[in-house]
Every structure is written in C-alpha cells, then in structure tokens.
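Following up on my earlier thread - several people asked me to post the actual chain instead of describing it. Fair enough. Here it is, all 127 residues.
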Amino acid sequence: MKIDHVAMYVNDLEAVRAFFLRFFGAVSNEMYHNPRTGLKSYFLSFGDGARLEIMTRPDVEDRGKALLQAGYIHLAFSMGSREKVDALTDTLRDAGYEVVSGPRVTGDGFYESCVCRPENNLIEITE
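Reply from S.P.:
Thanks for posting it. Predicted structure:
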C-alpha cells in the first residue's frame, strides 16, 4: 500500500501552483473545474511519483493557520544532499519567503530547514 496523494484547499490556487512549479519542480495537469460547485483543482506531480492536489472553491472557509496546531502541519521534500537543502533554502529566502528554522541538524539527526510558504503552510526541506 502507498499514499496516492495529499490534498489541500487553498485560497489562491494559481499562486500556490506557481510556488510548487518554480521552487520544487512540480509538473501540473490541466485545471479541473466543476462549474456546479465552483471547485477548481490541479494535481501536482513530483519526481518520485508523489502527488499533491491543490483545490479551491468559493465556499472554502479559511480559519487561519497557526504554525503550531493540531492536524497536518507540513509537507516535506527530500533534496538528496545538504548542499541542495542550503541552496533551496537560500533561494526561497531571497524570494521573500520566511525561513522558520535551519538549515540545521535536528535533535533526532536530520538535516533540514523549514520555510513558510504562501497561505502560512510549512514546507520542510530535508537532506
């Protein structure tokens, strides 16, 4: 068994899509649109077969997000080396995204950084 994909509702579908295309090399399908419900979505595919579905619709309720809250809290991307973690972290920082932590070696031995992306969701960048 494997997880097929993870889905998330967003407010600005195109901005979130552009973020993952630009910084994480995602490949996007064509937008799906259900005119009856107003749902619009994209599937974003990543090199190892992982997929992220991003969705929006007019009646989505945005309750705001805290960095430390119950529930799903971040997406993690493995870069393959410390140098790539450092480079992507610097690229995101230079593009104006908040680096919340790192790059650093965590207490449990992982090399990572954590960046806050559009809509206040966390992206973990790991070795």
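The chain is about 20% helix and 40% strand. That should answer part of your original question.
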